[in-house]
Each structure stands twice: as C-alpha cells, then as structure tokens.
Design goal:
Helix 9 (238-251) links the parallel strand 8 and strand 9. Mean pLDDT is 92; it is low at 1-11. The protein has 314 residues and is an alpha/beta fold. 39% of the residues lie in helices and 13% in strands. It is globular and about 55 Å long. Bound molecules: zinc ion (ZN). Residues 73-74, 77, 165, 222 line the site of zinc ion.
Length: 314
C-alpha cells in the first residue's frame, strides 16, 4: 500500500518536461509555485523595457548565505528558463517531502543557503525570438530595421537591440573596439553592448540585486556547447579554478576560458572582477540554438545534481 509520503510524491512535480516556455507560461508557473509553496518568496527586481516583470524567487532563509542562478540572458536560449523552473519545482517538492537530493539534506540547504533564481532575465528577447515583433511595440519599426526582416528566430538581444551579456562593466571600452571591427555600430540581434555598462533595465536590475545581496556564487545559464567558463585572462580567483573542476566533474561539461567576443562585458567577467568570488557561465546542451525542446529532459538530467549541490560547494 502507498504510504502518505508516496502519494504525495506521486503528485509531484507540476511542470511538464518541455524546454520552450514563453514569458506568459513562465509567469503562470511562478504564480503557481508561489501559491503552492508558502516557503518561497517573490523578490521584486524591476521590469523589462516592455514592462514585463523580471521574475525572481528566493529559496531558503533570507539570512542564509546568498547564491544566484540566472537564466535567459539571450532570446534563443530560453530553454535555460525551463531548466531553472524545473529546479525550483523539484527543490520545493523535495523540501516538503523532507528528502535528500544527491546527499544534500533539503532542510539543511533551505536553512543554510538562500538561492535567488531569475529564470528569464530577458523576457522581451525571448518573446521576440519565439513570437516575432509585436506591432504593439513602440520600437516595432526599429526592430525590423535592426533585425533586417521580420524573422526573429535568431534574436538574442533585448527589445532595444542590446546584448545583455555584453552590457556589464567588464572590458567595456576594449569590447567597443571589437564591435567596430565586427561592423556592429548600434542595436542588433546579437553582440551590441549598448551605450554604457548597465544601460538596460534588465542588467541594471540584476546588478542592483547583486550589490544588495553580494552572492557567494553565481551560475548563469546559456545554451549551447556543454562548457563551463569561469572568466577570461587569468582574472579568476583560485577558488574559481578549484570549484570549476568540481562543477565540471559533477555535470561532465568541459571547463574552458572564453575566447574572442565572449570574453568581454559578461556577467561572469564583471562579477569576478568586482567581487573576486566565483561565478560560472554554463553553456547547457549541445547543438544549434535554439535547442530543440525535445533535448530538455537529457539536458536537465545532466545539470540536476549541480543545481542541488553547487550552493554547498561554497
Ligand atoms: Zn547566451
């Protein structure tokens, strides 16, 4: 016969195993989680250019050691939002059931680590890449010009054509030179860094949260390549190299240093330079962006242990 515990487990989790969630669906799941799990908190971060709320939830006691997970800097990389939502869902179910996950006692994790999760930092970019430009957007004509047509399937930037992961204050002037060489002179589907660091509401909101909470570890999820970057040019603290090796062992992704344009203006580069604490860019999955939603299950399976264990590595 089923014990009450087994019955409870049979109901969980809520999320279907699909990797192609748009902003509306992500919002619905976050609302559902917040109503179902009274121990998680919604953090008000701010809004995107198009006024979409930048969702952020907190798992763990407020006074515990802060950790930050960020998904979907880039429009085509929306599978990372689904990965983080799935993790929130499993975390909550495991905690309610008093379970251990990969040797991690969930009640201990909840009381000793405070994980901030932003599943979709760039909701406007995700919507563009999934549904194309909306005629409602005040930037509609400009979007078509920046994109060079109305197929937005390869769009990575935010609504103003700024690539959020080049908009942080790390190597910004140097990157401006690289941009010119690449022929990028203004808003574009990818790789334009903006007028100045944190010029965009999305990056500004995230940096505000980082300055307030000063996380001990950041994992920022992108697709694709099955690689882990811990920053460029030997600037990483010793702990980053040590942790990077452990993380690489846990998920089986290769530890690498960024080359070319990837080295400039990224969240990982800025955070490591500013705080000297570990931060990792995880390139989830392998293939061509956007990754097919059918890949979601296998990608999540490889990263699941890391999501549960990483907070206790620091
Ligand atoms: Zn990316």
């Amino acid at each position: 016969m089923d014990s009450p515990d087994n019955k409870r487990r049979a109901q969980a989790p809520i999320l279907p195993l699909l990797g192609d969630l748009d902003y509306t669906t992500v919002t619905e799941y976050i609302d559902e989680f917040l109503s179902r799990y009274d121990f998680i908190e919604r953090i008000f971060l701010g809004s995107s250019i198009m006024g979409r709320e930048l969702h952020c939830v907190r798992l763990g006691k407020k006074e515990a050691l802060p950790i930050l997970y960020v998904g979907a800097h880039h429009g085509m990389e929306r599978m990372t939002s689904a990965l983080l939502l799935r993790f929130i869902n499993e975390y909550c179910e495991a905690l309610m059931n008093g379970m251990k996950m990969y040797g991690v006692d969930m009640r201990y994790l909840f009381s000793e680590r405070c994980i901030y999760i932003i599943p979709m930092l760039n909701p406007d970019g995700v919507e563009l890449s999934l549904h194309g430009a909306s005629r409602e957007s005040p930037l509609y004509d400009r979007l078509l010009r920046m994109n060079g047509g109305d197929d937005f399937g390869k769009w990575q930037a935010n609504e103003r054509g700024v690539d959020l992961n080049h908009n942080y204050n790390a190597g910004f002037p140097e990157y401006k030179e690289r941009e010119k060489e690449l022929g990028i002179l203004g808003g574009a589907p990818t790789k334009y860094s903006g007028e100045y660091p944190e010029s965009e509401p999305e990056t500004k909101a995230l940096c505000r949260l980082i300055r307030t909470t000063e996380p001990e570890l950041i994992l920022t999820l992108h697709t694709q390549g099955e690689e882990i970057y811990y920053t460029s040019g030997g600037a990483a603290p010793t702990i980053s190299r040590r942790l990077g090796r452990i993380i690489s062992e846990i998920c089986g992704y290769r530890l690498a240093e960024p080359e070319g344009t990837a080295a400039y203006g990224g969240l990982t580069d800025w955070f490591v330079a500013e705080y000297g604490k570990p931060s990792f860019t995880i390139e989830c999955g392998r293939g061509e962006n956007p990754l097919p939603k059918e890949d979601f299950i296998s990608i999540y399976a490889r990263l699941r242990e890391l999501f549960f264990r990483a907070p206790l590595l620091v």
